[in-house]
Design goal:
The chain has helices at residues 15-18, 38-47, 105-122, 156-174, 186-191, 204-240; strands spanning 8-9, 23-31, 55-57, 64-65, 86-93, 136-139, 193-195, 201-203. It is α/β, with parallel strands linked by helices. It has a six-stranded mixed beta sheet. Helix 3 (105-122) packs across helix 4. The longest helix is centred in the C-terminal third of the chain and has 37 residues, at 204-240.
Length: 241
Amino acid sequence: MAWYPGAVRMELQPESDNQPAIRPTQFIMHSIAAPWSVKRTYEYWRDSTNLESHFGLDYQGAPGQYIGTQTRADANYLANLRPDGSGAVSIETASNKNHSDPWSNSQCEELIKLGVWLHHEHGIPLKVCRTASDPGFGYHRMHAAWAQSGTDCPGDARVAQFKNVIFPGIVARATGQSQEDDMPTPAEVFAHRIEIPDGRQVSVGDILAWTDNRHNVTYSRLVAVEAKLDKLIAALAAKES
């Protein structure tokens, strides 16, 4: 298992030893909807639930690491561990209770540094995940298969930061294009073109717009299905009474 040298180690047991190995191919960012310290997040994973993330991050300071990055953590639904052995590395970040606030400057910096390390340590490619299983970087609500009942996590403000600050910062720093204070502009990153599997050249901005659209469509469909189920359950309950 791999431990990030920039994190405070708070190892969860027995999960750290007992859960299966993964081959890390994705990094998924979450908001925990609580203004917790990394220690409080550790205590929550330890004492209150059988779920957990690999990392936690409060508003200031280094991230905490709870499980090695080559061991399954359970914060990403179907992305936790796939049949081919691949899986996602996850981080829960402190936020307000509605996960509507932006990441602090300190959080942005730590997310960028961790993303760079994951790229170099595990070869996670410097691209946004185009599908739920596509290797790369993403945020929790990006794909329905990453959240069992749908989610708005990490919130609109942080999704915008992922697009404009976090992901561009990881790419720039990992490739040596900038120092910490010399990041490319969002326009430069959005205009960068990459080749997709069918041979077409598309911009990063095109990919981000497509993933956001798919999220919105999928989330709307899930809400509609849940509403229909609620009506059906109510009707059955009324009939039985």
